[in-house]
Write a structure and sequence with these properties.
Radius of gyration: 21 Å
Helix content: 40-55%
Shape: globular
Number of helices: 21
Bound molecules: S-adenosylmethionine, iron/sulfur cluster
Largest sheet: 8 strands, parallel, barrel
Structural class: alpha/beta
Number of strands: 9
Strand content: 5-15%
Distance between the termini: 48 Å
Length: 462
C-alpha cells in the first residue's frame, strides 16, 4: 500500500544522508587527548558533531568508556539536576493493518486477541494509573484500521482528561497528516512520539512489508509534519537491534539536527527502545544484537550530543541495568508498564506487544530512585504552561529549566508522598525533598516553593 503525496517528501536526504553516515562508521576511536577534548566540549553543553559521535561509538577501551559515562551523568545533572520524571504507557488498541516483523500486534498474528478500548474503558485504565500516582501517560495504539483513526485518537485523548485526574497525555501512535496532527493538538495531546525503527532504507523495507508503514519517507518526515502542525514537542528514537546501532544513532542525531534547523527546536525526547522477544512476531532473533556496553554507549552519546533532550528509558530493559542507567544520563523512565490494552484495570496481560523486562511497580521504582539520590518527579507543568518546543529549548540553553523543573518536581513528588506513597517511602521521600530544596540558590524561589509545599501538604494540589 502506498500513501498519498505528503509534506516534506523532497527532504529525505536533508533529514538523513545514509551514504554520509555509512562513511562515518569508519571513524577511528579517539586517543586519550582527543577524547578529553570531545568530553570538554560536551560538558560545556555545546553538543557533538557527527564525527565526534562516530568516534565515541567506536570506542572499546573500558577505562575511556567510564570517562564517557561520567561526562554523560554530569551533563544530565547540569541540565536537569537530580530529577527523574516517571510515566506509564496506556495501550488503547492493538488493531493493526501493518505487518512489522518484530511486533506482536502485526496484522498476521492471528493468535492475538484484538481489542479497541472505548472512551469509558480508556477512562478506567487512566484512573487505574492515576490511583498508583501517575500524572502523565503515553497513549499507544496500532495503526490504520477502521475505528482506530484520528477521530478515535482525539476521543481517546479527551477521554483521559474527562474521566481521570491525569494531567497530560502524550501519544505514540501512527503518523498523521499535518491536518490530523492539528486535530490531535487541539484535543489536548502533549508530546507526539514516533520511532523510525530503522533509518537504513533496505532494512526498513524488509521489516515493514505491508500497510502504510511500508513507506519509509512517510515515516521519516512525520516529525516535520507534527511540528508544522503545532506540536512543539516531539519524541523519536530508532528501535535498536534491527540494524547496526551506530548507524541508527548517527541517523537519529542527524534527524534531530534537521528539526533544529527547520523549527528552531530539536526533539523533546529521545527514546532507546531495544528489540524484545514478542509472541507472534515473525522475527525469531535480533538481526543486529547490541550488548549492554553498546547500549550504555548509546545512552551516553545521546546525552552528550543532544544535552537538552529528555532521554527516555522504558521497562523493556531489566531491573539491574535500569538501576545503573538512571545514574548515567537518563531523565525519564516508565514504571509498572502493561503493554496490552485494558491490562491495568483488568490486571491481566492477554494481548501484549512484547515481553516487558522490568515488572516492578511504581512504588518500587520511586524507592530505587530515592536510594540512588534522585528526585522522582510527576511534574506536567511545562506542557500545561506552554513551555514547549523552542521556548523550552531556549530556557534549557540558558540553564533556566532547573528554575522551573526543580520546584515543580519537588511539589509534584510531595503530592505523590501525601496522596499515594506507601508509608515506608515517606521518610526517605521527605529527606529527598529537603535536600532538593536546599539546592535552590535563589532565596525568593526557595521560599515560594516552601510555601507551595505547605499548601501541597494540606492537600491543595501542585
Ligand atoms: N503502531 C505505532 C507505530 O508503530 O508507530 C505506534 C505504537 S507501536 C505499538 C510503538 C513502538 O513499539 C514501535 O514504534 C516499535 O518501536 C516498538 N516495538 C514494536 N515491537 C517491539 C518489540 N518486539 N520490542 C521492543 N519494541 C517494540
Ligand atoms: Fe502495528 Fe506499530 Fe506493531 Fe508495527 S509496531 S505492527 S505499526 S503496532
Amino acid at each position: 500500500m502506498s500513501v498519498p503525496a505528503y509534506e516534506y517528501e523532497g527532504e529525505l536526504k536533508a533529514i538523513v544522508d545514509g551514504e554520509a553516515i555509512e562513511a562515518l562508521l569508519a571513524t577511528p576511536p579517539p586517543g586519550g587527548a582527543a577524547l578529553d577534548a570531545i568530553l570538554r566540549k560536551a560538558r560545556s553543553l555545546k553538543g557533538l558533531s557527527l564525527e565526534e559521535v562516530a568516534a565515541i561509538l567506536n570506542l572499546e577501551d573500558a577505562a575511556m568508556l567510564q570517562k564517557v559515562y561520567r561526562a554523560a551523568a554530569e551533563v544530565k545533572e547540569r541540565v536537569y539536576g537530580r530529577r527523574i520524571v516517571l510515566f506509564a504507557p496506556l495501550y488503547i488498541s492493538n488493531l493493526c493493518s501493518n505487518n512489522c516483523l518484530y511486533c506482536g500486534f502485526r496484522r498476521d498474528n492471528r493468535d492475538l486477541k484484538r481489542k479497541l478500548l472505548s472512551p469509558e474503558e480508556i477512562g478506567k485504565e487512566a484512573r487505574a494509573l492515576a490511583e498508583q500516582g501517575f500524572r502523565r501517560v503515553l497513549l499507544v495504539a496500532g495503526e490504520g484500521r477502521t475505528g482506530a483513526d484520528v477521530d478515535y485518537l482525539c476521543r481517546a485523548v479527551e477521554a483521559v482528561y474527562r474521566y481521570s485526574p491525569l494531567r497530560i497525555v502524550h501519544l505514540n501512535v501512527a503518523p498523521q497528516t499535518v491536518a490530523g496532527f492539528r486535530r490531535l493538538k487541539l484535543a489536548g495531546a502533549g508530546v507526539y512520539q514516533c520511532f523510525q525503527e530503522t533509518y537504513h532504507p533496505a532494512t526498513y523495507r524488509v521489516m515493514h512489508p505491508a500497510g502504510t508503514k511500508a513507506d519509509y519517507g512517510w515515516r521519516l518526515t512525520v516529525m516535520h509534519r507534527a511540528m508544522a502542525a503545532g506540536f512543539g514537542d516531539v519524541g523519536m528514537g530508532p528501535l535498536l537491534g534491527l540494524y547496526d546501532y551506530r548507524f541508527e544513532v548517527l541517523a537519529a542525531i542527524s534527524h534531530a539536527r534537521s528539526l533544529e534547523q527547520a523549527f528552531g527546536a530539536g526533539p523533546h525526547t529521545m527514546s532507546v527502545p531495544r528489540l524484545r522477544p514478542a509472541l507472534g512476531a515473525a522475527l525469531t532473533e535480533v538481526p543486529h544484537p547490541l550488548s549492554d556496553t553498546d547500549f550504555r554507549k548509546v545512552i551516553a552519546v545521546y546525552r552528550l550530543a543532544l544535552p537538552y533532550v529528555g532521554l527516555v528509558l522504558t521497562t523493556r530493559e531489566r531491573p539491574e541495568l535500569r538501576d545503573e542507567l538512571v545514574d548515567m544520563g537518563v531523565s525519564q523512565i516508565s514504571a509498572g508498564s502493561c503493554v496490552s490494552p485494558g491490562g491495568y484495570a483488568e490486571a491481566e496481560d492477554p494481548a501484549a506487544q512484547f515481553e516487558v523486562g522490568d515488572h516492578r511497580p511504581l512504588s518500587a521504582m520511586v524507592a530505587m530512585l530515592l536510594q540512588h539520590g534522585h528526585l522522582p518527579s510527576f511534574c506536567t507543568a511545562c506542557y500545561r504552561c506552554g513551555r514547549t518546543g523552542k521556548r523550552f529549548t531556549g530556557l534549557a540553553r540558558e540553564g533556566d529549566i532547573q528554575r522551573f523543573c526543580l520546584p515543580n518536581a519537588i511539589l509534584s513528588f510531595q503530592e505523590y508522598l501525601v496522596t499515594k506513597a506507601p508509608p515506608e517511602l515517606k521518610a526517605a521521600g521527605e529527606r529527598a525533598i529537603a535536600t532538593a530544596l536546599a539546592t535552590i540558590d535563589d532565596s525568593n524561589l526557595r521560599e515560594e516553593t516552601m510555601e507551595r509545599l505547605e499548601r501541597t501538604r494540606r492537600g491543595e494540589g501542585d
